[in-house]
Amino acid sequence: MNQHLISRIAIFLLSFVMIFFGVQHYLHPDMLITKVPSYLPGGKVWVYVVGTAFILAALSFMLNVWVRTTAYLLALMLLVFVFTIHLPNYFDTADRDYQYQSLMNFLKDLALAAFALYIASNARHQKVLEETSLEEEEREAHRSMDLAHE
């Protein structure tokens, strides 16, 4: 398999997971409202906003449109969750089960943010790894090696 096909499969898998997460935000907002910090006004609205963001990011990745911008925004959103929700929840509870759940959410969102940053770093002209010929890939590899030797 070539790199382009493998990359597209990985992005589609991520997109399906994000669509699932987004739909869950609409189907079970009352379960997710507990994750919204009490200092944020709007309550349940944030659950729907995040669900919408997940779905729109997935569509952007699947349609290969505005990929770089979407990936950076997704990573930013997930890192905000990591440091403003999951990490404080981990340290602020005495309940071992809730602490474990917070740690799992911390790691999940951190991994998804890393994947989003990887996608953004590989997006060219707002698209992910546009199909290239073998000759173009070889020229790019030679250019990279030439730069490394300088």
Automatic annotation (TrEMBL):
Keywords tagged on the record: Membrane, Transmembrane, Transmembrane helix
Q: Where are the transmembrane segments?
A: 5-25, 45-65, 72-91
**Disordered: where is this region?**
130-150
Name of the protein this chain belongs to:
DoxX family protein
Biased-composition ranges for Basic and acidic residues? 139-150
